[in-house]
Design brief:
It is a single chain. This protein has helices spanning 20-23, 68-76, 89-94, 105-109, 175-178; strands at residues 27-28, 30-35, 41-46, 49-53, 58-64, 78-82, 113-114, 123-124, 129-142, 148-163, 168-169, 172-173, 181-183, 189-191. The chain is mainly beta.
């Protein structure tokens, strides 16, 4: 019979490092570009990110604390998610640095920008795909007792999608060629490089 290490988060995990994020993995990375009310560009990766609805297409990410991305989106109501292809893993990680307020991470790490079609924040030129978004809501999260957490969920509707045609094959996204980067636990990342297919059961 299997033995389990069981714990209540409020009491501590009793391990070398918290296993929580290692167990919620892989997590796609939201590489979020935004602009401030004065036009300063910000680019930052968020591993608490995902899709929440297909029609209308809604994506979201969670910011721990009031970071530039959150403040910019709150002020302007717009952002772009840039898909992190496998070739961009290292430079994406560089944009996670704690740069001074008002400094453009794109400029600091040498990334070129492409103007978006609908929203003000630019896209990352080398990204294999990008999604322009309009803000739906920002919600501060709370626990079951109603105590506010320093975490803010940002939800946006995707209003424009861009896909580099080099990553389209027979009308489908070539997922292994794109090799999307995801976050695991601790300091680990992964790339999509091994696929298998399953069909849903029919009754």
């Amino acid at each position: 019979m299997a033995k389990f290490h069981s714990y209540s988060p409020q009491d501590g995990h009793g391990l070398k490092h918290s296993p929580f994020k290692a167990l919620i993995a892989p997590r796609p990375i939201g590489w979020i570009s935004s602009v401030s009310a004065t036009g300063a560009v910000n680019l930052a990766p968020y591993s608490f990110f995902n899709a929440f609805c297909e029609l209308p297409p809604i994506i979201g990410f969670c910011s721990y604390g009031r970071k530039d991305s959150l403040n910019n989106i709150e002020a302007t109501g717009e952002f772009v998610h840039n898909v992190v292809g496998g070739a961009l893993a290292s430079v994406m990680n560089q944009t996670s640095g704690n740069y001074p307020h008002g400094i453009s991470e794109m400029d600091e790490v040498g990334l070129a920008a492409i103007a978006s079609d609908i929203v003000a924040p630019p896209r990352v030129a080398g990204a294999p795909a990008a999604m322009e978004c309009k803000l739906i809501e920002i919600k501060q999260l709370q626990d079951t007792a109603g105590t506010k957490a320093e975490c803010y969920l940002v939800l946006g509707e995707v209003v424009r999608i861009h896909i580099d045609t080099a990553f389209l094959k027979d009308g489908l996204v070539d997922e292994t060629a794109l090799a999307a980067v995801s976050r695991l636990g601790y300091f680990s990342f992964s790339r999509v490089d091994n696929l298998f297919s399953m069909t849903r059961p029919k009754f």
